[in-house]
Fold:
Amino acid sequence: MRRRPYEQRAGLIWALLLLTMLPAVASAQDVEAGATAALDRMGAYLRTLKAFQVTAETSRDVVLENGLKAQFSSTTDLLARLPDRLRADVAGDLSDRRYVYDGKEFTLLAERLNYYATVPAPPTIGALANALEERFDIELPLVDLFRWGSADGPRTPITLAVDLGASAVDGTTCTHYAFRQAGLDWQIWIQRGDYPLPRRLVLTTTTDEARPEFEARYEWNLAPSFNESAFVFEAPEGAHRIALAEVPAMQAK
Amino acid sequence: MNRSIRRIQLLLAAALLLAGATAANAGHHNTRSSSRTSVNRNTNINHNRNTNVNVNSRRNVNIDVDVDHHHGCCYHDYHPVARATAVVATAAVIGSIVTSIPPSCTVVMVNGLTYQQCGNTWYQPQFVGTTTSYVVVAAPR
Structure:
């Protein structure tokens, strides 16, 4: 049966009406409860860990003034004993750095230069992370691992949250999620099952049109063997102690 | 295929040589931004500090390169005293900050602090964030 023209027109109008309603429907589901719940579950699980070792292969984009995007890689080997011991070695294209924290002092070592700086430190890794950022503009390696599921530390509201389904990371089945917050789109792959660990993270910085990215793939060891000396800084032979510049007060808002 | 690879290798080698010869100019891969490396970060703090020699150009945040490397993207690490750079002319102003220092400097410890003495100019190495740089200071003794 052939439809008459006015029927076709009516259909078109209905379709248009539906289309105009779509954004309203979509925005109600922009933040999928399942996706944010998975993030919370991962955070809660991370906060139950008393000690862990994680090795992360990371890459980071840098945007040159001419817009050229350059990617640099590094490997981070991090050992933490909660709440107050941390050691991290970051070996990268651009620099090698060691971070050592024993609950009392924090030391940053530039291995190839053999320079180090030591400053008094607050009593927990969480407080250390905040203090280092605020006072010295230093971000602890893989700092998110200490902030997910934690009340202290900055938090930016999530405006989009999507469950993208199953995805394997290095042979482990994960669920892939995507999130948006101010200035940052990010994706995370969370291991399925009883150990909801982050296995991969991709950040896309959206404040630059070149959209530089950061990626980390995590290998976890939840039963690391270590002794106390791992968290005590010993200056390498010939190392020189230098200053750690504080963020100028004027620039901290 | 092989030929083009060889050509690229030759070009690369030539570029490296050239870069080595003009080390002073090769340094400033100024960056306009870089990706964030964490989700949970207080972005209200302005962390873009100027660590560049040329303070007049716009928001020069160098690639987060260790100065124990040569410049920018493609060099590898050597102690700064082993490197040739040409920042001396602009570096003599006390309080100015440079990312590298001239060759033939000497490490001098004064009152437990580390300095690099390069002729009459004294530099105090420091971490700015996790990047090393050098502040020109008055002779500490």
